[in-house]
Specification:
The chain has three domains: about 130 residues, Beta Barrel (Cathepsin D, subunit A, domain 1); about 110 residues, Beta Barrel (Cathepsin D, subunit A, domain 1); about 80 residues, Roll (Pdz3 Domain). It starts with a helix and ends with a strand. It is of the alpha+beta class. The strands form six sheets. Strands 2-3-9-4-8-7 form a six-stranded mixed β-barrel. It has a six-stranded mixed β-barrel with strand order 14-15-20-16-19-18. The protein has a three-stranded antiparallel β-sheet with strand order 26-27-28. It has eight helices and 29 strands.
Length: about 400
């Protein structure tokens, strides 16, 4: 009996101590996230998001790609030269699709968005002339991790507005789906897809990738992921750090991103000579032509990305293949490359042809011309200039799926 009483006293003492301990604990309340500013953006072909911003006290607004696939923040070398920005060389290198390069830096600079000044930024400097030529507008830089990790960013593709919030307790939309990717400086998301069987692997979430889905050739070869295709793959061109890069274009039968499914997704196959994608850890990337189908909240601080389908969710994929590469060079839309045996080659296009019009559109707008060539099942009419001669050409794109 004495022993039982001692045990009861001991238990009571523990409970009193625990209650006393609980009364001494302090709980820090996280501040509520507040909207800081709202910034309009433009969407280019492939889903690239362009935001206007200023650097330091230079008055001109510059064009920046908003890029979750960038581990920092950067400026184009010609923009730096134009404004005489004080840059310093470094021994640091950056690695991207197409090559590895040493970079210089603009240190301790500021980025000015409407209603927001972001300070203490180190911009690395790179040559983005190929991006400017590919998209038909001056690309002055890329906004990546150095900006994105400081705030909560909501991208609303229905209204083309970027909302910037302070870090803290954030109320997500009631619907949609939460991703919890792994974060280095670039979010890495597990993803399931089907083609020649069912596969799961890790992929970069890359808003700066003007594509739907990209697979490393090493991953494709090791996994035998792609079934035997009725058509293709088709040789095409993409733009990367080292310039123009040859890739192959095909489709993947089914992609699952959280609960969302996409069928017959256009997919690029990439011979990753510099192992930019860090295979075997990462197998490729999910680009913004897929991600733009959601309104997205990027919360780097909590390692959360929230997706909710928007009005573009059911947009048709671009299955047209021409083998024709067009770039805006010195104010003219120039044919850079024609893939042998492609529809463009069979129609009679040659490198250095100047595109005067596409389907009677003479705006000299590269974005519009690319949209007009995204058509299958009909012939597209071109007027070109070659050696000062005006030549009509008709081309019928083939369908990759």
């Amino acid at each position: 009996m004495k022993s039982t009483c001692c045990i009861l006293v001991f238990i009571l003492t523990i409970l009193i101590d625990m209650r006393g301990l609980a009364q001494e604990q302090f709980v820090e309340t996280e501040a509520v996230s507040m909207r800081i500013t709202t910034v309009p953006f433009t969407v280019l072909t492939g889903g690239l998001v362009i935001i206007r911003a200023q650097v330091n006290n230079y008055k001109d607004s510059l064009n920046f790609i908003l890029d979750t696939g960038s581990g920092g923040i950067s400026l184009d070398s010609s923009t730096v030269s134009k404004y005489g920005m004080p840059i310093l060389p470094s021994e640091k290198t950056i690695k991207g699709i197409g090559g590895v390069r040493k970079v210089s830096f603009l240190y301790d600079a500021s980025l000015h968005l409407p209603g927001l000044k972001v300070e203490n930024l180190n911009f690395h400097v790179n040559d983005y002339s190929i991006l400017s030529e590919a998209y038909g507008m001056k690309i002055d830089g890329i906004i990546g991790y150095s900006f994105l990790n400081r705030y909560i960013i909501k991208l609303d593709y229905d209204s083309s507005l970027m909302h910037v919030f302070s870090q803290g307790q954030f109320t997500y939309p009631p619907d949609g789906h939460m991703l919890n990717p792994m974060f280095t400086s670039i979010p890495i998301q597990p993803l399931r897809f089907n083609d020649n069987g069912s596969f799961s692997h890790r992929f970069y979430l890359d808003t700066g990738g003007g594509l739907n889905f990209l697979l490393s050739d090493r991953f494709v070869n090791d996994s035998a992921v792609l079934r035997r295709k009725r058509r293709g793959p088709f040789v095409t061109q993409a733009e990367g750090l080292g310039g123009r890069v040859n890739m192959r274009l095909t489709t993947v039968r089914l992609i699952r991103l959280g609960p969302y499914r996409f069928k017959n997704v256009p997919t690029l196959l990439f011979d990753d000579q510099y192992n930019v994608l860090n295979y075997p850890f990462v197998g490729g990337l999910i680009g913004n032509d897929l991600l733009r189908r959601f309104n997205v909240v990027l919360n780097y601080g909590k390692q959360e990305i929230h997706l909710i389908p928007n009005t573009h969710f059911s947009d048709k994929f671009d299955y047209a293949y021409t083998g024709l590469s067009m770039y805006l060079i010195d104010g003219k839309i120039i044919v850079d490359d024609v893939v042998p045996h492609s529809p463009a080659a069979k129609a009679g296009f040659q490198s250095n042809d100047i595109i005067v019009s596409v389907d009677n559109n003479m705006t000299n707008n590269l974005q519009r011309y690319k949209e007009l060539t995204q058509a299958t099942g009909k012939k597209i009419s071109f007027i070109i200039s070659r050696e000062n001669k005006i030549i009509p050409i008709r081309m019928r794109p083939v369908r990759i799926f």
